[in-house]
Design brief:
Helix content: over 70%
Distance between the termini: 22 Å
Number of strands: 0
Strand content: under 5%
Number of helices: 6
Shape: elongated
Structural class: mainly alpha
Largest sheet: none
Radius of gyration: 18 Å
Order of helices and strands: HHHHHH
């Protein structure tokens, strides 16, 4: 179970990094066909590695915790509970930030495609500070969980 959890975690982290690198390139692009290509390239990272990977990390992590019969708040295993709580703090980002801001982005992209060029609305959607903050928060939480998993400090 631990091995499946670690494999899912690797896939999830690879998805986060891959998606963010590709979307960063799309954000810097000034050519609509290039932006479309980069957005298309980011889809498998988001759909398969981030979404599915995050669910598998959670499920396999809980199953590994259960299989090893770890206490909820035992000496030497508190890092597991803290990691789960930290991971759970990312879940509200989906309905509160990513879904509503994604609809705004999709509308801006559709308008840009209708205009045949990058529009100010698309540029603004690419630079949405709420989405940027949420993505940085995701990466920070994942980095903190990795540190906890490796060091097992408490």
């Amino acid at each position: 179970m631990q091995l499946l959890h670690v494999i899912a975690a690797f896939a999830f982290v690879a998805g986060l990094v891959g998606r963010d690198l590709i979307l960063g390139a799309a954000r810097r692009a000034d050519d609509l066909p290039k932006i479309r290509t980069l957005l298309h390239a980011s889809e498998p990272f988001e759909r398969h590695l981030v979404r599915t990977g995050s669910m598998l990390v959670l499920v396999f992590g809980i199953l590994a915790w259960w299989a090893e019969e770890l206490p909820l708040w035992g000496t030497g295993t508190r890092w597991v509970t803290i990691s789960l709580i930290a991971f759970a703090t990312m879940i509200p980002l989906v309905p509160l930030v990513f879904l509503p801001r994604g609809k705004v982005f999709d509308a801006a992209l559709a308008d840009a495609e209708a205009a045949g060029q990058v529009t100010p609305a698309l540029t603004a959607a690419f630079h949405d500070p709420a989405v940027a903050a949420a993505r940085w928060y995701e990466l920070g939480v994942v980095a903190a969980i990795i540190v906890l998993m490796v060091t097992k400090p408490f």
